[in-house]
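[audit] Reproducing an earlier prediction to check determinism. Same input, same settings, fresh worker. If the tokens differ from the archived copy the diff job will pick it up downstream; this log only records the rerun itself.
[audit] input (161 residues):
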Amino acid sequence: MTNNSSFSHFIEKWSSKITQGAGSTTTLVLAFLFVLLWAFSGIFFHFSEQWALILGTASSVVTFLMVFLIQKSQNKHSMSIQLKLNELVAANELASNRLVNVEGMTEEELKIIQKYYSKLSDFANKQESLQQSHSIDETHHEHEIKKEMEKELVQAKKSDE
């Protein structure tokens, strides 16, 4: 188990360094120079099929590997942002803690909450003060928004089961 953990740690560090390096100006310039060198070398190789195959193969391999490296980097980045947002939501006593795990909700549940926030925005626009705060868990005596959302969320969860 420790061996797998150290291997994962090694891969994590390695992929982070490659992703950072791949996004650098130096790498962009080197790639551009490589393509220019390849194009110039076509004169000496008489623009043969093998000459064309070299860049095609190299770019395919690099693209294939970079897709996975970029996806890994995006997953890590998304998770870190989500955790920061979760901390802010959890730390704010006026915020709804239901949203702490919003990324775990289904698309249908997210649409219901989005609809709620749209209605909440309309409600807030009618308020006298722009600084007045509202959240999902706040009770609105004049509006049944929260009850509607709760009902839709329960129905969405039942349809998922």
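[audit] rerun output stored. Observation attached for the diff report: The chain has two domains: 2-91, 97-160.
[audit] end
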